[in-house]
Every structure is written in structure tokens, then in C-alpha cells.
Design brief:
The complex is a heterodimer of chains A (344) and B (224).
Chain A (H helix, E strand, L loop, with lengths): L2 H8 L1 H37 L4 E6 L13 H10 L4 E11 L5 E9 L12 E5 L12 E2 L8 E7 L3 E2 L2 E6 L1 H8 L6 E5 L10 E5 H7 L1 H35 L1 H9 L4 H33 L10 H28 L2 H6 L4
Parallel strand pairs in A: 3-8, 4-6
Antiparallel strand pairs in A: 1-9, 1-10, 2-3, 2-9, 4-8, 5-6, 7-8
Chain B lengths: L1 E14 L2 E14 L3 E6 L5 H8 L7 E6 L2 E2 L5 H11 E4 L11 H11 L6 H14 L15 H13 L5 E5 L7 H17 L3 E5 L11 E6 L2 E2 L1
Classes of the chains: A alpha+beta (344), B alpha/beta (224).
The complex binds adenosine-5'-triphosphate and magnesium ion.
The site of adenosine-5'-triphosphate has 11 residues of chain B, from β1 and α1.
Subunit structure (chain A): The complex is composed of two ATP-binding proteins (HrtA), two transmembrane proteins (HrtB) and a solute-binding protein.
Function (chain A): Part of the ABC transporter complex hrt involved in hemin import. Responsible for the translocation of the substrate across the membrane.
Subcellular location (chain A): Cell membrane
């Protein structure tokens, strides 16, 4: 006979309360980590969504990509050897729309490559979020450093950098606007270990992101928030499981007195904990996915299956540890105690 | 026939600096099919003796012999097994499992005792025991809806459903009125006879001694 199940059936309210705590706390964690991830995407989706590989900038740029200038000989040599590689540049700037309203964007340009949008001279491809600003395909945009006009060719999904929408432009236009002939960086996809290139310093994707001061500081705060939440949720779980077990000391004593094994009591508690946690987690995952779909436009929310699974596993482990730690009382319960304590 | 022997059992409790000997070498043998009643002043050690005999707490010294084995030399798991299979208990309060129906209480006991019965056999067994304690009509009831006397009768049913060799009862009628007490005692006596159980019970109530075959008086940690 399954006493774990019988107890839950009889004491629905108590287990419902415990379940809703797990549900609310895990939902909170999922939503917050979705928002944190969304912010981080908003800050660096352009780079984060690139495949793994190596970034190169000049040694004397002091790890600041805006100061890096790749010499054209080096660039040609690398691009010749690595067919998938690209040289690219990133610059903050503005475009003026037809109503002469200024919109801040991040200009990105690159050598011909699959990794970036390649646009013809005089054309511009914008991040999707610019649609919300009322810009349509075919609109004409201007920039005070640029003699010509940009025609909007199209939009791309999720290309953000430094919380601003990315604007892909042609390399010629870029060179004119920023009066330079050099690109800032080289990117070689698929490379696990950097190659030694004269005068250049290599960075993995993560290392490169860390060189961007606004990104690394923000990331640290966001990670802190999520992990604090996870730790505090874990403690909350443990405390609630503990309180439930304390209430059940008398019951455990009686069951022990009639000869139920301690291991059977642990199994009973684990079954209940697993049942509650799995249901509560499934509900909060479902709800957070709904939120993922219907999060208001412009609210950076990004919850990947990867993060969801990771957090769920962490919650299951934490729940298990919490239940087991609080269940140590079960081991200590003397059947005699329960009997002498009178009526239950 | 003697089936249960308590030999020179001692129990000391230590509270901080003070060590007190509560049982001072108790000898007692129990016979099959007999109700043995333990009486004595409050604090004389009756409950302590009963719970030690039932394997619910260890003795400090002495032997408890049952079916050729010595309980005091067994480890916790071995004692638990004997408790589950061979012993039954009734206490002052029924101590039923609050979330199980009357029927489920008994089913749990059968499971715990490891009786290899089919579901149908279990049900039949439960029906029989419940009619013995005259509770067949409350099979689906939860403990919270039973009266004190009814709970105690279920506790007795639970204590004997797995056909224990020894039944221990510590003031089983203390929470009942005089009429109910007599019913419960009559029931314990009847079961002892029909199932050939060895019963050891503690009582404060003179009236209940009429149901015992043997009366043992305890005073100051010793039997007279
Ligand atoms: N766990 C314990 N620790 C310390 N002293 C204990 C413990 N259990 C019992 N005692 C003491 O042992 C003595 C005998 O207790 P016991 O419960 O066996 O008496 P009793 O004869 O059953 O009394 P009553 O008729 O009141 O139930 C008492 O003085 C009690 O205080
Ligand atoms: Mg007592």
C-alpha cells in the first residue's frame, strides 16, 4: 500500500500549500532568470549568437575593441587562410528617419561573410526592434557623417549590442563615415585554441564579452541576482519541508512503533517531495514559457530550454537535499516518544 | 507453556549527574493463552518494563527470551522485524494513522508484518478481525470520525491482525468510560483465548483485574 499517496490524498490542503510555494518560488526564479538573460541578450546578442571561435584585436589596443585597428596585410593573410573568417567593426551612432528623428543604433560592418548581414553600398539592414519606431522597408535614413542616404533593405531578428539595435551597413560606407581604412576585429569561427598572429591578441567569445566593461559588470549583477534567488529558494524549500516533517514527528513515531522501516519512511517522504516538485516545476515552466511567448514587445525576456532545464535540475537537487536534511529527524524519532506523547 | 521470559532486567536513566535505577532486576515469565496484568503504584516502572519487553527501548541489563532468541542482544533492525511480525501493541491512546481509513490501517499492518497475502485474502482477513471487534460497519471511516472506544477497538484490531505471538497493552482502557473499558477488556481476553496469544497488560483499574489470569504487582522497580 502506498502511504505516501494516501497521505497526500487525505491532506490535500497541506500539500497544495507546499506545492504552491515550490511553484511560486521556481516561477519567480525562472522569470527573473529570463529577464536577466533577456537583458544580457539585449546587451550582446550580436556577439553571443555568433558561433564559438576566436576574436582578434591589436595588442596595443589595450583590450578595447574601439581602439583596435587591424592592419590590412594581416587581415588579407588571415582571411585568405580561413575561408569562414571575417573582419568586422562596431560603432555607436545615430540615424535620422524621414521625420528627421534621431534613432540611436550600432553600426556594424564586415567583410563578406555568412556570419554578418552583407549589404550593398547605400543600403542598411536593421534589427527588428526598429520596426516599432515606425521604420519600414524602403524608408530612407540619413546620418550626418555620411554623404549619401541609406535605404532600408530589411530587418533581422535579435541583433542587439549595448542595448541598442544593430544597423548593418556596407564597408565602404562605414569607411567613409568613420574616416578609417581598417577594421577593428577579426573573427575566426570554429577555432578552439587561438593562433599566434603578429601584433594581434586573441579572445574567446566569453573573454571578448568580458572586455566590454558595460557587459561584464551588468552580467555579474544579473548572475548574482539569479544565484541568490536559487540559493534562497533552496533554503525556503528546505525550511518548508522541515516544518512539514516536524509536524509529522508523532506520525513517524507511530509508524516506526508498528514496525515500518526507517527506509520506508524516507521513501515516503521522497515520493511526496518528488511528486510535488515535479508538478510545481512543470506548471512554472509552462507558465514561464507562456510568458516567453507573450512577453510585451520591448521587454527583454529570453528563456532558453537550456536555462530552464538547468534550473529545473538545480531545483530538483535542492528539493531533494532539503527534504533529506530535514528528514534526518525521521532517523532520530524514537517510537516511544510518539507513544508517550498522547493523542495524535 | 512459557513463551516469553524476562530475566533480571534492569533499567537505569541518567539525567545529568543523577543516575536512577528504575528497574531493579525484574523476573517474569508469560504463558501462552494467558492474560497477565501488571499493577502497581504510579512510577513503579510498569510502562518501562512493558516497553522494554516489547522492544521499544533497550534494557540496561538482563535478558528477554522469546522463541529461543535473546532480544537484548539483537540489533535495531532485528528487533524491528520481531516487533513487526510477532508483537502487537495497544496503548492508552489508539495512535491510529490519521490519514488512513480503518480498513487501510489494518492493510498497512499486514504489509508491515510482511504477510504474503493476496489483496482478496487481506480483505477477508480484515473483515473477520473487524467483526471480532464489532467495527465491520466503519471500514471506510477515518480515525477523526471515530469515538474514543471505537478508536481503541481499531487499535486492538491492528495489534492482532497479523496474528502476533505476544500482545502488549499499556493501560488500554484509561481513555475509556467504565462500560467501554469492560468491553475492551473482554475483547482482549477473548482474543487471547481464541487466538492463543500471550498478553501482558498494565492497568490501574481494579475492575479490570477480573479479566486477567494472573496479576503481578510491581513496586519500586521490582515484582513482588
Ligand atoms: N526516559 C526516561 N528518562 C528518565 N526517567 C524516566 C524515563 N522514563 C521513565 N522514567 C522514570 O521511571 C519511573 C517509572 O516510570 P514508568 O512510566 O515506568 O512508571 P509507571 O509505573 O508506568 O507509572 P504510571 O502508572 O504513572 O504510568 C518514573 O519515575 C519515571 O519518571
Ligand atoms: Mg505507565
Amino acid at each position: 500500500m502506498n502511504i505516501a499517496w494516501k497521505e497526500m490524498k487525505k491532506n490535500k490542503a497541506r500539500f497544495l500549500i507546499l506545492g504552491s510555494i515550490v511553484f511560486l518560488v521556481s516561477l519567480l526564479t525562472l522569470i527573473i532568470s529570463g529577464l536577466a538573460n533577456g537583458l544580457s541578450q539585449d546587451n550582446a546578442a550580436l556577439i553571443k549568437d555568433l558561433p564559438d571561435g576566436q576574436f582578434y584585436m591589436t595588442k596595443d589596443s589595450d583590450q578595447t575593441y574601439t581602439l583596435s585597428k587591424i592592419d590590412s596585410n594581416t587581415q588579407d593573410k588571415v582571411l585568405d587562410k580561413e575561408k569562414d573568417a571575417a573582419a568586422f567593426s562596431i560603432q555607436m551612432g545615430f540615424v535620422n528617419d524621414s521625420a528627421d528623428k534621431q534613432q540611436s543604433v550600432v553600426f556594424v560592418t564586415s567583410t563578406e561573410s555568412e556570419l554578418f548581414e552583407n549589404v550593398k553600398k547605400g543600403e542598411i539592414v536593421l534589427d527588428n526592434s526598429m520596426k516599432d519606431k515606425g521604420i519600414k522597408v524602403g524608408d530612407v535614413l540619413t546620418n550626418n557623417q555620411y554623404s549619401g542616404e541609406f535605404t532600408v533593405k530589411g530587418f533581422v531578428d535579435q541583433k542587439k549590442f549595448s542595448h541598442a539595435p544593430v544597423a548593418f551597413i556596407n564597408m565602404e560606407d562605414y569607411k567613409e563615415m568613420y574616416r578609417t581604412n581598417e577594421m577593428q576585429m577579426l573573427f575566426v569561427p570554429g577555432e578552439d585554441s587561438p593562433q599566434a598572429i603578429d601584433g594581434l591578441q586573441a579572445f574567446s567569445k566569453k573573454e571578448f564579452l568580458d572586455t566590454i566593461p558595460s557587459y561584464s559588470a551588468e552580467q555579474m549583477s544579473l548572475n548574482m541576482i539569479v544565484w541568490f534567488l536559487v540559493v534562497i529558494s533552496g533554503m525556503l524549500f528546505a525550511i518548508f519541508f522541515y516544518m512539514m516533517n516536524v509536524q509529522k514527528i508523532g506520525l513517524y513515531g507511530i509508524l516506526k512503533a508498528i514496525g515500518v522501516k526507517t527506509s520506508a519512511l524516507f521513501k515516503m517522504m521522497w515520493t511526496q517531495m518528488l511528486f510535488i516538485t515535479v508538478i510545481a516545476l512543470s506548471l512554472s515552466i509552462a507558465l514561464s514559457q507562456v510568458f516567453n511567448k507573450f512577453a510585451p514587445e520591448g521587454m527583454p525576456f529570453h528563456l532558453t530550454p537550456d536555462t530552464t532545464v538547468k534550473l529545473s535540475i538545480v531545483f530538483l537537487i535542492i528539493g531533494f537535499i532539503g527534504a533529506t536534511l530535514s528528514g534526518m529527524q525521521i532517523k532520530k524519532v524514537e517510537p516511544l516518544q510518539a507513544i508517550q506523547q498522547g493523542e495524535v | 507453556m512459557t513463551v516469553f521470559t524476562i530475566e533480571d532486567v534492569r533499567k537505569t536513566f541518567t539525567n545529568g549527574e543523577v543516575t536512577e535505577e528504575i528497574l531493579k532486576g525484574v523476573n517474569l515469565s508469560l504463558k501462552e493463552g494467558e492474560v497477565t496484568a501488571l499493577v502497581g503504584a504510579s512510577g513503579s516502572g510498569k510502562s518501562t518494563l512493558l516497553t522494554i519487553a516489547a522492544g521499544l527501548q533497550p534494557a540496561s541489563d538482563g535478558q528477554i527470551l522469546f522463541e529461543g532468541t535473546n532480544l537484548t542482544e539483537m540489533n535495531a533492525e532485528q528487533v524491528r522485524k520481531i516487533r513487526a511480525n510477532k508483537f502487537g501493541f495497544v496503548f492508552q491512546f489508539a495512535h491510529l494513522v490519521p490519514f488512513l481509513t480503518v480498513e487501510e490501517q489494518l492493510m498497512l499492518m499486514l504489509d508491515v508484518a510482511g504477510t504474503k497475502m493476496k489483496k482478496r485474502e487481506q480483505k477477508k482477513e480484515i473483515d473477520e478481525i473487524l467483526s471480532l471487534v464489532d467495527m465491520g460497519h466503519r471500514k471506510k471511516a477515518y480515525p477523526s470520525s471515530l469515538s474514543g472506544g471505537e478508536k481503541q477497538r481499531i487499535a486492538i484490531a491492528r495489534a492482532i491482525i497479523h496474528k502476533p505471538k505476544v500482545l502488549f497493552a499499556d493501560e488500554p482502557t484509561a481513555s475509556l468510560d467504565s462500560k467501554r473499558s469492560k468491553d475492551v477488556m473482554a475483547l482482549i481476553r477473548e482474543l487471547t483465548k481464541t487466538l492463543n496469544i500471550t498478553t501482558l497488560l498494565v492497568t490501574h483499574d481494579e475492575e479490570m483485574l477480573a479479566y486477567a489470569d494472573r496479576i503481578i504487582k510491581m513496586s519500586d522497580g521490582q515484582v513482588a
